[in-house]
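Quick illustration, no need to memorize.
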Amino acid sequence: MTRPDPAIAYQRGRSPGFVSQRVLSELGRRILAGQYAQHSALPTELQLCAEFGVSRTAMREATKMLAAKGLVVSRKRAGTLVQDSSLWNRLDPDVLSWMSATDPDPEFVRGLIEARLAIEPAAAELAARRASAGDLARIEAGYLAMRAADLSDLAACAEADVAFHVSILNASHNPVFAGLASLIGQALENSFRLTTSVSRNYAETLDAHGDVLEAIRLRKPDQARARMRALIDIASADLVNATAKHRP
């Protein structure tokens, strides 16, 4: 029998909710990593309780939370089954966090880029109209952090890039875009591990970010929209290269 992970196993004094959350995170990571295949059954409740050293109450709570995120479904006589990935709520904050521990999914990244094309050019246009001095300072800070980042440190590059894009979404002063900022930011962190790592011309990417910043700062809405679209087109081209690179 698999020994329970000490970081997950029940600890005296911990609340049931804490224990359920720790089990939830580990099971979620396993599902996204493919350790439990789509349409297959999870180990039985008793097996999982024994592995993690938790009560049945805590395990059932974790399973309910997985179901709420679209990852599993309970069936009579069949047990708890992993759902098809098309049903997973990939924009759920927990799911996004678990995805960061797995290899990026090119199909999800492609979907994200398509969503960005629908949202971010419009946000850049609005930012050019509405951004405050503080908004502009935050966008510029993200850009300068990108330029200062060590190109061998992908995490630092991604963090600065996310800060740049999230700052523009917030600077749009559109409550819907602003509400999406944190979720899109988390999703971008995941996608950048695939697209940025294969970018052949990081200088071009930096220049494109600078072009967006300039258009917003100079209050040129149409130009800001066009330049943001051009910037995302670079990520789209990187995705094509990444997909070709990973294709057998």
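The chain has two domains: 16-87, 103-246.
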